[in-house]
Specification:
This protein is mainly α.
Amino acid sequence: MDAAQLYKHAITHGSAVAAATLVDRLGQLHPADFRPALWAAAHSALDDPGAVAELLYALREVGAQEQVEVLAARAAADAALDDPDAVTRLLDALRKVRAQDQVEALAARLPAAGQFDQFIEISDHRERFRYGREPNGSAGPPWTWDDLA
């Protein structure tokens, strides 16, 4: 019980890694009780996308699908995008937990964060945005060398 309390305290101070550990350990002890998973999904910090990915995997592993959906929605809207490798891990985790709508929502945020290279690797974006992206987010119109004045 003391260890669980320490993990819970670490989560309230921003540790998504502690959240994944708490969900995993309490899921083993009390597999039918999803309250810790729900709490972790709702309260985990989103500043480390790699750790959020680990929490998504932990939630899936204990069968907490509703909590996966809660965390996936939060991550798509608010996860930090400053670490491209961690964002890649988060995108992979969202795909693996079958949160495709959240993959698209997170992907929509990537160009504004300076990560257009990652953005075009998702879905059909490479083809759809082959001429770039307009300021409003839509695909840029086709152009040729002659259009460059």
